[in-house]
Design a protein that fits this description.
By secondary structure, this protein is mainly alpha-helical. It has 16 helices and 5 strands.
């Protein structure tokens, strides 16, 4: 089991290394000069060169790449006399580090926080921008997957119990629509119907974030009402998947011999469903929910932007509009790490539950 866990961790590190490399290459071949974006169209050449030198963009590509890895790595090399190559030393929060090994008079190996650079526009550390926006995205994804799981399992159970009924067929139609409906279109449609046409009945807002500014100047207050439409819209697709998986898996379990034996012994239908069939039918559903939770964290961009939910999605779209490459790179890397960590965790859980997975 230990070898299996170590192997999965190694695979995860290799995938992360590949993601970091692709992110660096992708954003360093895109058109546009960050210095001119920061200074505006009237920037003079001397100012542009000074900004590029401060950002390290006047160095060869391979040097920029290793400096990028050096910033991201918790264990880093740096020269105490050359701070221009080590941007994390310019930030108070990132200047705290632990020296692991002295390498000559001026070089040392240190332990520090991973550094995602600074925003071209606001000059704030990217990690600070992302960590302030991530809780809203995490809350949105959590509520969306909880909605999809609870409602989807209930509908899936009813579809399996009342197979080929009108309710079953209607649920299948809505499941297909839910899986095929684009997120941005669903967001616009839901906002228009429930927050515009039916606003007098629902009381919902078309736009709004987790905190709302009080009209009487008493500061901000928590407004979870704004979470309803984004969470439902984001949860539609996983809801459709959960309904289909629960229905098909439960039907498969109900056809097994041990279910027939339970019926022959006179157990009630409720007891057979809850205590015997359902728990054995939940494996594919749990697998889907775990995978979809990671996807929702990454796929909430359009939903957040349409509903103006101040999370990672709004940060990414705003950075794209302003060509703020460090924020975009940091966001993509942040989401990639979440996906990799969740996948590793799921693989380890599978390995603990099923010995065949560890062998393969």
């Amino acid at each position: 089991m230990v070898n299996f866990i170590l192997k999965r961790l190694l695979y995860g590190l290799l995938v992360l290394f590949g993601v970091v490399t692709i992110i660096f290459l992708l954003f360093n071949v895109l058109p546009g000069d960050p210095a001119r974006m920061m200074l505006g169209q009237r920037a003079d050449m001397a100012s542009v060169q000074a900004i590029n030198h401060d950002l390290g963009r006047d160095k060869p590509m391979i040097t920029q790449y290793f400096n990028f890895l050096n910033d991201l790595s918790p264990v880093s090399f740096h020269n105490t006399t050359d701070k221009n190559n080590y941007w994390y030393l310019d930030e108070t929060k990132y200047s705290v580090h632990l020296t692991l090994l002295k390498l000559g008079n001026h070089n040392e190996l240190i332990l520090k926080k991973p550094y995602l650079r600074r925003s071209y526009q606001s000059k704030r550390p990217v990690s600070e921008i992302l960590t302030s926006a991530f809780p809203a995205t995490f809350l949105l994804a959590t509520v969306a997957i909880a909605f999809a799981m609870i409602v989807g399992i209930l509908i899936g159970i009813l579809c399996a119990i009342y197979r080929n009924s009108f309710f079953d067929r209607l649920s299948l139609v809505f499941s297909v629509l839910g899986m095929s409906l684009p997120s941005f279109f669903a967001a616009i449609l839901f906002a228009w119907i429930f927050a515009f046409l039916l606003a007098d009945y629902t009381g919902l807002n078309m736009f709004g974030s987790m905190y709302t500014v009080d009209d009487f100047g008493r500061g901000e207050y928590l407004d979870l009402k704004n979470l309803i439409l984004p969470a439902i819209t984001l949860g539609i697709r996983p809801l459709a998947i959960v309904v289909e998986l629960t229905r098909s898996s439960l039907l498969d379990v109900l056809s097994q011999d041990y279910i027939r034996t339970a019926r022959a012994k006179g157990l009630s239908f409720y007891r057979i469903i809850v205590h015997h069939a359902l728990k054995n039918a939940m494996n594919p559903v749990v697998t889907a929910i775990t995978g979809w939770f990671a996807s929702l964290l990454a796929g909430a961009v359009f939903i957040e932007y349409v509903f103006d939910w101040k999370g990672m999605g709004v940060v990414i779209v705003d950075a794209l509009e302003k060509y703020d490459f460090p924020v975009i790179m940091g966001a993509v890397l942040f989401i990639s790490i979440i996906l990799i960590v969740i996948n590793i965790f799921v693989d380890i859980i599978y390995g603990m539950l099923d010995p065949k997975v560890r062998v393969s």
